[in-house]
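Table S2 (text version). Query chain:
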Amino acid sequence: PNAALEAMPCGCALVGTDVADVPFLIDDGTTWFLVSRRQDAAAPVNRLAILLADRELSRRMGEAGRLKAEQEFSLEHLVSKTCTVYRTEEWKDM
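Corresponding structure-token output:
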């Protein structure tokens, strides 16, 4: 997942596999392509070929990933979410 979080702000459209939290970070077909690790080895290669062949699709997906990273994973957003958690009643009972 770290590679996904590092690539998204750069505007890179990539292919990810459904391991760890990757499926929660990307939107299949919008920000990246997501392939199942249970698919054959040709699946990620085929998705990469699509991105290489369609530069406009690659650009759109990269831009969508960059925007998602800014909106959901920016430092400001993470600080805001953390402060919200600290303000909740459940946190005070811990």
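Notes on Table S2: The radius of gyration is 16 Å. The chain has a mean pLDDT of 90.
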